[in-house]
Design a protein that fits this description.
Layout: H1 3-23, H2 28-32, H3 42-62, H4 70-73, H5 81-99, E1 110-112, E2 119-121, H6 122-152
Antiparallel strand pairs: 1-2
């Protein structure tokens, strides 16, 4: 694998590890708790970021349809920390397999998003995954903090 892709995978792997740390030791109630009516639970956030990663690497970059149901991701509940951790590991393994098939030249290749028909380069897609995963990691950490503060009050 090219050094650029190794570094990318390392950064994304750290984000996945931080997600696993953020859910470690949480009860089912904590994972399924929503801080407000239009907010997402920790479990939903993890399932959604995994779904997005699979979409961008699978459907968009590798042209391998995932059958993703984005709306259903936001209805997820009942998944414990171990199951969520396994799903994070599976997603990272898929991304590693995908990156292993790419070259630096591929980053400039334009693909069409199956979801909305917009055009992006493969490079844009992989960078979007990193940004999107980092954003939702912060949401997970803040939601956990809110859960813990709720218990202290």
């Amino acid at each position: 694998m090219n050094k650029f892709f190794e570094d990318y995978l390392d950064r994304l792997g750290h984000l996945h590890e931080d997600c696993k740390l953020a859910i470690e030791g949480l009860s089912q109630d904590a994972l399924d708790w929503k801080p407000g009516p239009s907010m997402n639970s920790i479990g939903v956030l993890i399932i959604h970021l995994i779904g997005a990663e699979r979409y961008w690497f699978g459907d968009f970059i590798m042209k391998e349809p995932s059958g993703r149901n984005r709306d259903q991701e936001f209805q997820s509940n009942g998944l414990d920390p171990l199951e969520l951790s396994h799903r994070l590991d599976d997603a990272l393994a898929y991304i590693e397999k995908s990156l292993d098939q790419l070259t630096i030249q591929d980053l400039m290749e334009i693909r069409v998003s199956p979801r909305d028909g917009r055009e992006f380069t493969i490079g844009w897609g992989i960078l979007h995954v990193l940004k999107h995963t980092a954003l939702h990691l912060v949401h997970v950490e803040v939601t956990r903090h809110m859960w813990e503060m709720r218990l202290e009050n």
